[in-house]
Design a protein that fits this description.
alpha/beta, TIM Barrel, 2 domains, eight-stranded parallel barrel, two-stranded antiparallel ribbon, 17 helices, 12% strand, globular, binds zinc ion
Length: 416
């Protein structure tokens, strides 16, 4: 099960937008860019929405069948670990093995010593093709990286072997993710993390480091775009080097867990993959559910009313909804409209405040972030919400497809 060069992770909390999402990939293909869709839904989302991984598989298969998609596609067990992976084993063929919680827990001293000794040949000034200047690597640096990451990689090995035992070698695409942590990994960190992954014999196809800057949910990147671009290019160079040097799978590629909508770094990513010919997995458009809300708001009548009600309830449950996402949202409460104000908004005004068009005067990133984490409210509305998705399917689908194609696929892979 080999991931193609380009793939994109897409979220769909309520499993109603499979076809609308896939339609965007078909549009990209018509422009000559083939990107494999990877449906992802994390254990946390399944728990909040009360859904099962098989529903994601059914949704993906159905969309592919109805629209006649001939390309590759995957279903991701998103951010799983040993404790959560089992319910995903049947339905998924892509596994995002998340070991961020194990970063910083030291491995056995003897394992660290063996790793430092095996990597001793890279100490000194290391030249990596594609990186300007030499990397300055000392044995102390290698040891510090091993102390921080070796235990996490060994944990990834345990999870990988657990999945392999259930599904069989080569029957799934494994990713290792370390993005949900507080400190970014540098290209040198990444190099030795990959050395450890190779030593652990994990045929990893994508690696998701934490990049520099803030990746808040559903809003744009906050950070130094130039620094990101350098780091991203250096990471690509490290991966190409590591594939040859450590014998990792030749299609190993970077995975960007974007938290959706990091528009200001898309041009840097596009330039880098064009220049180097590298592959890319980018996880984005977990904002599909916001496009549902935009579609409902625009639909008028009961659709608009549901959108207003979702906001009013989300505002009333601010702490409960924001708590689990505290590290990946920045909401200024004083910039949130009151429920009464929103009750007086037209559907168009609601859509304008929510839609991710930063140049629109009514766009409100605080409103957007609160709704982004507010999907629990819609989940609890049950049939009222999902019946509206069916009733207003065409306007919702139009927003979902446009968002995925115009704001994501086109900007990352096609260009202007
Ligand atoms: Zn992630």
């Amino acid at each position: 099960m080999i991931l193609p060069k380009y793939s994109m992770g897409i979220g769909d909390r309520f499993a109603h937008q499979g076809k609308a999402q896939l339609a965007a990939f078909i549009k990209a293909k018509e422009l000559g860019v083939e990107v494999a869709p990877v449906w992802n839904k994390s254990n946390r989302e399944h728990t909040i929405v009360h859904s099962e991984p098989t529903s994601v598989r059914e949704e993906a298969n159905h969309a592919v069948k109805v629209l006649g998609w001939k390309g590759a596609y995957f279903v991701d067990a998103d951010h799983i670990g040993l404790k959560t992976v089992d319910r995903f084993l049947g339905a998924s063929d892509f596994f995002t093995i998340d070991v961020a919680d194990f970063i910083g827990k030291p491995a056995d001293d003897s394992d660290i010593a063996a790793f430092v000794s095996a990597c001793g040949k890279y100490a000194g000034s290391l030249r990596v093709p594609g990186i300007e200047g030499a990397l300055d690597i000392t044995p102390a640096r290698i040891e510090a990286i091993a102390r921080k990451y070796l235990h996490a990689v060994k944990e990834a090995g345990k999870v990988y072997r657990h999945i392999e035992a259930a599904k069989g070698k080569g029957n799934f695409a494994p990713e290792i993710s370390m993005d949900e942590t507080d400190q970014p990994q540098t290209p040198i960190d990444l190099l030795f993390i990959l050395a450890a992954i190779a030593a652990e014999k994990i045929p990893v196809q994508t690696i998701a480091p934490k990049f520099t800057g803030r990746f808040n949910k559903g809003v744009d990147y906050v950070g130094d775009v130039k620094q990101f671009e350098k780091e991203f290019n250096d990471d690509l160079a490290v991966i190409a080097f590591a594939v040859k040097e450590f014998g990792l799978p030749p299609n190993l590629k970077l995975s960007v867990h974007s938290g959706s909508d990091k528009f200001s770094i898309y041009p840097a990513i596009r330039r880098a993959i064009r220049k180097t010919g590298a592959g890319l997995h980018i996880k984005t458009a977990g904002t599909t559910w916001l496009e549902e809300l935009i579609g409902l708001a625009s639909a008028g009548g009961e659709g608009t009313q549901i959108a207003r009600d979702v906001y009013a309830q989300a505002l009333g449950r601010f702490d409960e909804l924001c708590g689990p996402y505290a590290t990946v949202i920045d909401i200024d409460k004083s910039k949130l409209p009151t429920a009464q104000e929103v009750a007086g908004w037209s559907g168009e005004q609601y859509a304008n405040a929510l839609r991710h068009d930063q140049s629109h005067p009514q766009y409100n990133p605080h409103f957007r972030q609160l709704l982004h984490v507010g999907f629990k409210v819609a989940a609890q509305m049950g049939d009222r919400y999902t019946d509206a998705l069916k009733k207003f399917e065409s306007v919702v689908a139009k927003n979902v497809t446009e968002n995925m194609f115009d704001r994501h696929l086109k900007r990352v892979f096609v260009g202007d």
